[in-house]
């Protein structure tokens, strides 16, 4: 048998999934010179990419190159899914190993945080969230559509109305019970909030601006006086880990109202809300439940643990971190952390540190705020403008520095805190509209 016949036989074996990666690598390297003569540069690159290594992910790429080779010759071949399935198994194992290493690396910081929690126990919540997965009870049967993609205004309206119905069904059957189990109340048709011991937790599904479904989901826990931007969030493996990534895959199914919401689409919507519920009830909400006071929120052990989890392990496929929340020492662009920690310092009697932080926050944002307030004079009282609200709050706390008497200054800080929190309850959706002076 000549080399051309041997080569094509090997290619057919690859198409059928009968060649292991190491076997392919050995054969290719043994015949590299003859393959350069028999194949053009494009075929060689598709079958043996520059970064190729002996695993199933790259073997699936090789198989794709082989299929292209036969297709270009006018004799397409059927390919096995063997390499693709093995690649998924391989990647899953590698990701699991990477996560195990990540948890080992962060174990010391996690242990200190857990020991702190043992000394400051919070009320536990028992909630069978898994019973909510699947088809919502009493879900209306799917409609039959005579089209797949909406073309006319009437079709667009029908698709959007049906989408909104399915979103409402799932929201009420899955997200609302989970929020209620953790003490949250409704602050709107798709917003849930809770206030406890100076902290606010909030979950909101944000409507798509073109009138479709949900563009995104916002969820945060922070002091009532603060805004939702800042460094003290959730551990990286919870806020950016596998549940988060799975939740964001195929998010468009609950966002765009341009496709017929038939039986298949309804099932996809149900599954997507299962992902959202899992992200919240298996990660976010239990983590929030551990934090039942401002002291715990700002605890050094918690801050150190969050710092340790900022950067995820390397993705076995790309070599890049699975997530990376590390700002590498750069201050946040709004100086929201200066406001967050500045007020906390004042509340704890650390006036020099607190006023210095607040002064930096106000100074950094002053030029922007001058232009902003010139165009929108009420921006500081508008919940839609977080930066302006924060700026005004920081100003109010900073003004207490002018009080010369120490005891009177402490009283002024306390009064300002109460006044700011009164307005911020409206900002977070905990209270009805609250006014304040400019």
What does this structure look like?
There is one protein chain. With about 450 residues, the chain is α+β, with helices and mostly antiparallel strands. The protein has helices at about 5-15, 20-30, 30-40, 40-45, 55-70, 80-105, 105-120, 155-180, 235-240, 240-250, 265-290, 295, 300-310, 335-345, 350-375, 385-400, 405-430; strands spanning about 185-190, 190-195, 200-205, 215-225. It has a 4-stranded antiparallel beta sheet, covered by helices on one side. A hairpin with a 2-residue loop joins strand 2 and strand 3 (about 200-205). Helix 5 (about 55-70) runs antiparallel to helix 6 (about 80-105) and helix 7 (about 105-120) packs antiparallel against helix 13.
In short:
By secondary structure, this protein is of the alpha+beta class. 56% of the residues lie in helices and 7% in strands.
């Amino acid at each position: 048998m000549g080399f051309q016949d041997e080569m094509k036989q090997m290619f057919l074996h690859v198409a059928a999934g009968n060649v292991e990666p190491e076997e392919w690598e050995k054969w290719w390297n043994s015949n590299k010179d003859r393959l350069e003569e028999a194949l053009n540069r494009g075929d060689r690159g598709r079958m043996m990419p520059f970064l190729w290594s002996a695993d199933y992910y790259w073997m699936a790429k090789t198989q794709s190159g082989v299929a292209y080779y036969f297709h270009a010759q006018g004799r397409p071949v059927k390919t096995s899914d063997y390499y693709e399935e093995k690649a998924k198994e391989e990647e899953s194992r590698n990701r699991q190993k990477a996560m195990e290493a990540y948890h080992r690396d962060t174990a010391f910081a996690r242990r200190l945080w857990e020991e702190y929690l043992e000394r400051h126990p919070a009320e536990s919540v028992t909630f069978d969230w898994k019973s909510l997965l699947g088809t919502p009870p009493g879900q209306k049967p799917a409609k039959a559509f005579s089209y797949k993609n909406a073309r006319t205004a009437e079709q667009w309206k029908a698709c959007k109305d049906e989408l909104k119905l399915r979103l409402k069904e799932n929201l009420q059957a899955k997200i609302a019970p989970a929020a209620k189990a953790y003490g949250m109340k409704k602050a709107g048709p798709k917003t849930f909030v809770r206030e406890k011991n100076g902290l606010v937790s909030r979950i909101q599904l944000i409507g798509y601006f073109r009138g479709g479904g949900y563009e995104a989901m916002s969820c945060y826990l922070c002091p009532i006086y603060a805004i939702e931007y800042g460094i003290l969030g959730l551990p990286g493996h919870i806020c950016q880990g596998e549940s988060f990534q799975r939740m964001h895959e195929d998010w468009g199914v609950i966002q765009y109202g341009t496709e017929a919401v038939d039986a298949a689409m309804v099932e996809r919507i149900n599954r997507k809300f299962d992902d959202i519920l899992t992200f919240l009830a298996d990660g976010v909400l239990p983590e929030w439940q551990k934090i039942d006071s401002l002291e715990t929120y700002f605890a050094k052990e918690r801050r150190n643990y969050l710092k340790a989890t900022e950067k995820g392990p390397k993705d076995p496929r790309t070599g890049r971190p699975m997530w990376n929340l590390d700002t590498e020492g750069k201050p946040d662009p709004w100086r929201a952390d200066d406001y967050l920690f500045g007020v906390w310092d004042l509340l704890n009697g650390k006036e020099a540190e607190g006023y210095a932080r607040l002064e930096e926050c106000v100074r950094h944002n002053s030029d922007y705020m001058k232009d902003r307030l010139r165009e929108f004079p009420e921006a500081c009282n508008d919940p839609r403008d977080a930066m302006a609200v924060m700026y005004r709050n920081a100003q109010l706390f900073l003004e207490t520095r002018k009080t010369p008497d120490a005891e009177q200054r402490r009283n002024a800080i306390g009064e300002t805190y109460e006044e700011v929190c009164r307005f911020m309850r409206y900002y977070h959706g905990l209270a009805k509209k609250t006014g304040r002076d400019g």
